[in-house]
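Q: Okay, next protein. This is Glycosyltransferase from Lactobacillus helveticus CIRM-BIA 951. I've checked the sequence twice, so it should be correct. Can you predict the 3D structure?
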Amino acid sequence: MKKVVIAIPYLTGKGGTETVIKNLAKALDVKNTNDNISWKLVSFGGTKYPEWLSG
């Protein structure tokens, strides 16, 4: 199994980077893959508005 970690710094929760990350997560959910890839998002800086992380 391949493991992929996406590490992000502090994000406010209201910007473009958050939108890109959300779109990537949606694309990964939709893609039917048998590649045995495990994805993990790690925020080492936190966020001011954590609502964007839900879903």
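A: Here is a summary of the prediction. The helical segments are 16-30. Residues 19 and 52 are 9 Å apart (CA to CA).
Q: Noted. On to the next one.
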